[in-house]
Structure formats: C-alpha cells, structure tokens
C-alpha cells in the first residue's frame, strides 16, 4: 500500500492470519482461496451448474435464503408460514367487525376477506383444492381464538398453516415453516398504504381513445 506521496507504508493492524492461501482453478477461472482465518468476517459461496440458466436460478434461491436469514436475525422474531398469519387475522378482524356499529364494519370485513388471497393463491399454485383447505384452515384458527388459555392443544391451532406437498393443514412451527416477522409486518403496512392511497382518489380523468380512421380503400 502506498500513501499520497507514493511511499510504501504498512500498518501492523492490517496484518491478518490464515492457515493457507492457495490459487485454484474453477472451470475457466483462477481463484485465490484464503483458508483458516481467525476472524470469519466474510465468506464466498461458489455455485456450479450445467448452464447459465440453472446458475441464475441457483443464485436467486441462495440470495432469497440469505435475505430471509438476514431479516430473521435483524428482527429476532418469526411467525408461522403457510398462510397462518393471514388466516388468524381474517378470523380476528371478522369478529372485530361485528362489534363496530357503523359503516366502517363493511371496510373491516372486506379487508379481512382480502387477507385470504394469500393462502388461496398458495393452494391454487400448488394445484390443490383451495376452497377445502381454506375452510379447514379458518376452522382451526377460529377454534384457537375461542378457547380458554388452559386448552393448550386448541390454543396451538394458531400455528396451523398449509402443507402444500401433502395437501393438508399442519402445525407450521413443528414443521419448521417460518417467516420473519418484519417481512410480514412490512407487507401488511404496504398493503394498507396502497388501500389508503386508492381511497383518497376522488377524481378520475377518463381519456377517450382516438377514433379510428376509415380506410378509403376498404370495401363497402
């Protein structure tokens, strides 16, 4: 390393330690590998595939997995996946809507119904019977919100979501299907902000399409 005057300088604090530094060839590329460092501050993942398409898919999958881990570590909390959160909110908001004695009840009920789009879409994309699975899922979450705190078994129904491989409703926590809480909260906030932005629109400007010109050479 050189300073602004061009003199070579080196600080002892920049000195690191490694058990092995080697140069290896991966396909057509030469890479320098640093192994056995004392401080594992960074790492590299080497992906190999038959073609560029498969490598792109692998890269996207690894990137998504690392992003989920990153968000989980940042928030420190997870929630069950498979549509469990949306189903629980759907039941809760439907019950809450009945306590509102004004026209806001309709808005709350519609928002609750819109939340079911997530588990319905999951079921449809997996070629499963969405109507049957959503009905079972809602029954589990309705039971979990109506039982006493002593009934542990039915209380745990709040963790139930969709198992799209077997096509049934299961305990997502015991199956390890979890989502970062921060991602779910941000998704709900974004959906609410979009709804508010649309509802604030009070004027619509319609632009009529240009009239099509008649072809003088067309046969009548």
UniProtKB/TrEMBL annotation:
<dbReference type="Pfam" id="PF00118">
    <property type="entry name" value="Cpn60_TCP1"/>
</dbReference>
<keyword id="KW-0067">ATP-binding</keyword>
<dbReference type="InterPro" id="IPR027413">
    <property type="entry name" value="GROEL-like_equatorial_sf"/>
</dbReference>
<dbReference type="GO" id="GO:0005524">
    <property type="term" value="F:ATP binding"/>
</dbReference>
<keyword id="KW-0143">Chaperone</keyword>
<dbReference type="InterPro" id="IPR027410">
    <property type="entry name" value="TCP-1-like_intermed_sf"/>
</dbReference>
<dbReference type="InterPro" id="IPR002423">
    <property type="entry name" value="Cpn60/GroEL/TCP-1"/>
</dbReference>
<dbReference type="InterPro" id="IPR017998">
    <property type="entry name" value="Chaperone_TCP-1"/>
</dbReference>
<keyword id="KW-0547">Nucleotide-binding</keyword>
<dbReference type="InterPro" id="IPR027409">
    <property type="entry name" value="GroEL-like_apical_dom_sf"/>
</dbReference>
<protein>
    <submittedName>
        <fullName>Unnamed protein product</fullName>
    </submittedName>
</protein>
<dbReference type="GO" id="GO:0140662">
    <property type="term" value="F:ATP-dependent protein folding chaperone"/>
</dbReference>
<comment type="similarity">
    <text>Belongs to the TCP-1 chaperonin family.</text>
</comment>
